[in-house]
Amino acid sequence: MPQAQPAGEKNLFDALVQYQCAQTSKELLEAGPRALARLVPIALREAGESRVVGRFLLGLHDAQAHPFALTDLRSLDIGVFEDCLCVLYLAFLNERAVQNYLPRGRMIFNQLREYWA
């Protein structure tokens, strides 16, 4: 039977876990806009991954109007897939719309709608 940790050790452990989670969240929040900036050019061209990336971004923007099958992410190269995960995490942590991380984001997402909606 495992022994219970003393209260002081448990509080220290909990504080360490919270600190590590905060650091990870901060790093991912910083990586998200950079990942988005890499994904947009992919979504705006007519390459193999463009449709998946474009529909993924549209799904983050408005999931009801643009449903996205997560299994489509399996067709992406690992680097593009990881960028999608960073952007997904960014969207999860913030109430700010993904398009608002981009200069001329509204125009870009209108263009994505024309291509992939």
TrEMBL record:
Superkingdom per UniProt: Bacteria
Domain DUF7673: 34-116
Taxonomic lineage of the native organism: Bacteria, Pseudomonadati, Pseudomonadota, Gammaproteobacteria, Pseudomonadales
Official protein name in the record: DUF7673 domain-containing protein
